[in-house]
Task: structure prediction
Amino acid sequence: MAVSIKLPDDLKRRVARVVRGTDQSAHAFMVEAIRQETDRAERRRRFYADALAARAEFKRTGLGYSLSDVKAHYRARVQGRRTRKPKPRTWPR
Result:
């Protein structure tokens, strides 16, 4: 798909300055920047959708984890200690 993008002159100069002395063309640089931003936007959308689904599940079941239990679990894991996964508890509605 061919796309034409009109860039402001100052941005064109900045891109040219960034790629100068590299093996990358300005076009390749811009394609990669668009790919990275697209990936980031897709991840952000998935994260938001997952958060909404988790919230709906919590509202439906009332089950969740205590933040202090989760922190203690991960702190132990980071320190290389074996630990049991925290158990969910029922929260007041």
In short: Strands lie at 63-64, 89-90.
